[in-house]
Amino acid sequence: MNVAPMRGGTAVQDHVALAEIELCGELIIAASAAAERLSFDRIDEVLQVAGRGEGAPGEDRGGFSF
Questions:
Q1: CA distance 55 to 53
Q2: Which one, 4, 21, 44, 59, has least CB within 10 Å?
Q3: Backbone phi, then psi, for 28, in 5-degree steps?
Q4: pLDDT digits 0-9 by tens, 7-42
Q5: Which of 59, 54, 57 is nearest to 44 (CA)?
Q6: Distance between CA atoms of 54 and 51, rounded to whole angstroms?
Q7: How many C-beta atoms surround the C-beta of residue 61 within 10 A?
Q8: Which residues contact 47 (CB under 8 A, 6 or more apart)?
Q9: What angle do CA 25, 44, 61 make, to 5 degrees?
Q10: What string of DSSP letters covers the chain?
Q11: Residue 26 CB-half CA count within 13 A
Q12: In this structure, is the dihedral angle defined by the CA atoms of residues 43, 47, 49 and 50, taken in order, positive or negative?
């Protein structure tokens, strides 16, 4: 990945931000390919995290509402 140099010739990369942007992109791709809303299990799969089950309707899942 190329990053535009800032004044003084130093390049800045925020690896955490880049990883978050990549994960958001993966979710967008998965959501656009799905016929309906993504299940929590599918979101976990796309984000490559351990499955936690669907949970109860309305259960707090970290603020995500896809």
A1: 6
A2: 4
A3: -65, -45
A4: 665 667 889 999 999 999 999 999 999 999 999 999
A5: 54
A6: 9
A7: 14
A8: 23, 26, 27
A9: 100
A10: ------TTS-----HHHHHHHHHHHHHHHHHHH-SSPPPHHHHHHHHT-------STT---TT---
A11: 13
A12: positive
Structure confidence at residue 35 (pLDDT): 93
End-to-end C-alpha distance for the chain, whole angstroms: 29
Token digits for 15?
């690896």
pTM beyond cutoff 0.90: no
Report how far residue 55's alpha carbon sits from residue 7's, in angstroms, rounded to the nearest whole number.
49
Identity at 15, one-letter amino acid code: H
Residues 6+ apart with CB under 8 A from 42: 30, 34
